[in-house]
Amino acid sequence: MTSATTTSATSSAKPTKEDYKKIAKVKKNRSAGDWVIIAILVIGGLAMLFPLIIILLNAFKSSADYNSTGPLSWPKEFSLTGVIKFWTTSAFPQKVWNSVWTSGLVAIFAVILSIFNSFALGIGRVKGRRWIILLIMLANMMPQEAMLYPLYIMFKAIGLYNSGWAIVVIFTVIQSAFGTYLLSSVYGTFPKAILEAAALDGASRWKILKDVVFPVSRPTLSVMLVFFFIWTWNEYMYPMAFLVDNSTQTVPIAVSALSGDKLMDVTTTAAASLLSIIPTLIFYLIFQRTLSRGITAGAVK
After folding, report:
1. CB under 8 Å to 195, separation ≥6 — which residues?
2. Averaged pLDDT in 10-residue chunks for the chain of 301 residues
3. Which CATH fold would you assign to the domain 90-260?
4. Could you state, in order of their start, the residue ranges of all structural domains in the chain?
């Protein structure tokens, strides 16, 4: 009985000839509008990849090759001059470590802070929760330029100016404000029956958060973690204002420093842009499955 059930389940899981026929029929039944949409999406995808293609073409050119053939031609010979120049002059490994350190800590701290805040607002039902969420939403809408000078004065007074911890503290608060606004609405719709059952079993608030709420919201938290890391990595204004020494600066600051030269080397700038993209691309590829699962789970819920 068990083997028969297993066999039937295995056979039903595999696509049959009829399934392939249905797929082929759907493809044949595509209207002209469907093909137009597919063509627009392909063109849009190529347009989005065009800047990356230009960077790849020019990152491995020599300056003489670029000056003679322009930015759209294929390199006559493979050259690593721009890559080596940017790697050595900007202390790129140190910049990568600074970006990884600040972005990783911000992502972790912001997610943890968002969980605690959202649990109090969405499930704990603290008094005035609607006003608190409204204030958080208004804080998210405030332009970062308006907070730059007050934060500069504050971190200068407490001795964290020109320190990576200033960036960690600032963006932990900024990212957790968005995370709290997002998660509080999710936790506000959490099934009360599950929470009441856990409370009747003698579970404390901490145990409910750790064993009930956190596992259910893990897909959403994984998406937030990825986005917080990438958003912090790409930040330019606050690191430029707060990180003065070369040893504390991040990757975007190192890339922007090239445009300040009187004679900008285009091939070196292209190589710098390519090197700055690679770490975030690797991070995204590592967590791509986690990100897609989190988005799918959120859509199903």
Report:
1. 123, 208, 212
2. 43 54 57 83 87 85 81 81 84 90 94 89 75 80 84 90 92 90 80 80 82 83 88 90 88 80 71 85 75 50 46
3. MetI-like fold (1.10.3720)
4. 13-84, 90-260
